[in-house]
């Protein structure tokens, strides 16, 4: 099933008002306009623009989706490889003229010889940290990144601190300390009656990210943040 990919394909075929149904285990069902996945430079947030301007050398756009970030990089003379597990997303990126596209799971990318230790920048946007899935899987995520970047490479990714969902009027946070980390969510996406499998997605606060990076041999710097708990981080191996 590829509801997400089919929604992207429907959009570029002319269904510009299409919406994708998004269900989450801690929030009400939402219907996201598919157009939100097709950002032009003028539509991009300051964090997105900052991330793209920081990309250098050989770039790997992970979870590239519609390819909007890769396309900007390519159009501006950057060498970029775009990967996604969605076959529909791959078709959309091809139709938009991206040159180096791979239909592959991020965690399997290091098994491809020409991809291992081959990139100067790993780019993960639109809550790119989410691909880690859970806090427990973050070391595996970082290890995979380490296997893909070269000695001087970096990871540029964004995430959000969902603490605002649990804030009381006095500013205190109502969090169940016996539950899993509050930024671990489970999603499903549906489009025109087709429903993808549920998948985990991680929203991680910056301090927790830094702590785990330190344990795993990475430095972590906050590059930018907005006024709604979203931030852009740069990770480098020590």
Quick description:
By secondary structure, the protein is α/β, with parallel strands linked by helices.
Give a description of the structure.
This protein has 238 residues and is of the alpha/beta class. 24% of the residues lie in helices and 32% in strands. The protein contains 6 helices and 12 strands. 36% of the residues are buried. The model has no long low-confidence stretch (mean pLDDT 94).
Key terms:
5-stranded antiparallel beta sheet, 24% helix, 7-stranded mixed beta sheet, 238 residues, globular, alpha/beta
Number of strands: 12
Task: Give the mean pLDDT.
Answer: 94
Q: Largest sheet, if any?
A: 7 strands, mixed
What is the strand content? 25-35%
Along the chain, the helix and strand elements come as HEEHEHEHEEHEEEEHEE
Helix content: 10-25%
Shape: globular
Q: Which class best fits the helix and strand makeup?
A: alpha/beta
Please count the helical segments. 6
Point out poorly predicted stretches: none
Strand order of the largest sheet: 5-4-3-6-7-12-11
N-to-C CA distance: 40 Å
Radius of gyration: 18 Å
